[in-house]
Amino acid sequence: MTLTEPAVRHTDRARAVLHRVATDERRHRQRQRALVWLGTAVLGIALLLFWQFGLGLLVNPRYVSDPATVLARIGELLAGGELLAHLSVTLGEAGAGFLIGVVAGLVSAVALTSSRRGYEVFEPFLVAFYSIPKIALAPLFILWFGLGTTPKIVMAALLVYFIVLVNTATGLRGVQPGLFRVCRVFGASRRDLLVKVTLPAAVPAVVASIRITFTRAIEGAVLSEFVASTQGLGYLVARASRAFDIATVFAGIVVIAAVVMVANGLLRALESRLLPWHGGRVHG
């Protein structure tokens, strides 16, 4: 069956319209991306200028180091190998705590939401425990687990666990009950409901929470290193602070911030590729 000439012209016009719309949408996304990069660059330059010329007006200049000095100090630490050694320790602790917290949070969320009232029973205790300042727990973990990497991993896992738990449980409980009833009518088992309905519905919240919790894992590891440690970026900053080595203090802070920004950017790019329709709203 061949198309008539009017039908062919109509099809060509439709294709042209679709091509034009797709091109306009692609150009719009590129413009928006360029604006975001431009805004980020302008803000970064403004912060550097404020750091260079304005921060000393707000605090004692003796306790402020300028960006050039900090950059030179980072170069010295890199050349001596000290910075990479401390960075590898912190990333190892944060990575282990991150994996433990994600797995524990996912398993706990599935277990608590498998019963109708399970999560509601535990929620007040979860909220109460999450409200405890984590800096108050760090000395206890060090007393319980020693000065090695274990208390840092536990602290990192703890910060990750609650965010993953709450967001996964919210996603799991957000499925409409009517959808479950329809699936049961068509013969879906409990396993089918979990694997094919509940978990896919929770994926956006899970992925978004995983993205932000890696930064929390680094925060937990560094926080424990501040309290008591012999290695890691937190130890580097705390040691320099006690010695009034302001350049090293700022160097450690800059490196921690840079690691968090890079990790967050990589995870955000992964999230955008896996879930381009999701806005990434999370609790915690």
UniProtKB/TrEMBL annotation:
Provide the GO biological process annotations.
Answer: transmembrane transport
> Mostly located where?
membrane
This protein's membrane topology, according to the annotation, is: Multi-pass membrane protein
Q: Which domain of life is it from?
A: Bacteria
Q: Where are the transmembrane segments?
A: 34-53, 94-113, 125-147, 153-172, 193-214, 246-267
Q: Where in the cell is it found?
A: Cell membrane
Q: Which UniProt keywords apply?
A: Cell membrane, Membrane, Transmembrane, Transmembrane helix, Transport
Similarity comment text for this entry: Belongs to the binding-protein-dependent transport system permease family.
Protein's recorded name: ABC transmembrane type-1 domain-containing protein
Lineage start: Bacteria, Bacillati, Actinomycetota, Actinomycetes, Pseudonocardiales
